[in-house]
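Fig. S4 source data, part A: sequence.
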Amino acid sequence: MISSDLPIDWREWLLAEADKTYFLNLQSFVADERRRSVVYPPADQVFEAFRLCPVDRTQVVILGQDPYHRPRQAHGLSFSVPAGVPLPPSLRNIFRELQSDLGIPMAKDGCLTPWAEQGVLLLNSVLTVRQGEPGSHRNRGWEQLTDSVIRRLSDRREPVVFVLWGNWAQQKRALIDTSRHAIIESAHPSPLSARGFFGTRPFSRVDDLLRKWGRPGVDWRLPPRFVPQGTAGGGRTAKG
């Protein structure tokens, strides 16, 4: 379950967690789920967020709920989908807010790997899900693991920006030492709550904090989405 290609700091920590009773029970549950049904993401991508973003490079955490539950969508990064997969509604709304906030055009694909490689930990509270059943792997042990991740990052001296979208993510606020770290929170980007998400400018606020701490901001740009002339949107760059 814990692959050898993880950064050494996360790998050593996860291996220590793997000896604990809750984690052994969690591993058994997920293995049984994979035997009985389809589970996302694939087993080799469950810890993809950690593989791409070592502890010592983490400067932003964007906290999601659980992985996408439809085929081909989940690949171990919160809100992200692999290249070539249609944008889920929440991710489309994130890109709309990014365009409004920083003027960055809608992306061609929803793969957020470039963000992760710059130190943005795209972490879900729950790291697996049964196909077609959102929330099906809640309260099985993942929350204990990811709460521990947040505490570990909160214990760091170097400040981190924690981005908490929606009530589920905001429940983690108590785990974060706000004397050292910053929290940006708003409604979730889901269409059900996006009215309270639009206009909150999370991306420029993250960059402002990082620059205040003497670091460069995140390059949020992704490959632009092109649409044929004459289609809705009236030009080559989609407006969302």
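Fig. S4 source data, part B ends here. Strands lie at 39-40, 60-64, 120-124, 129-130, 161-165, 182-186.
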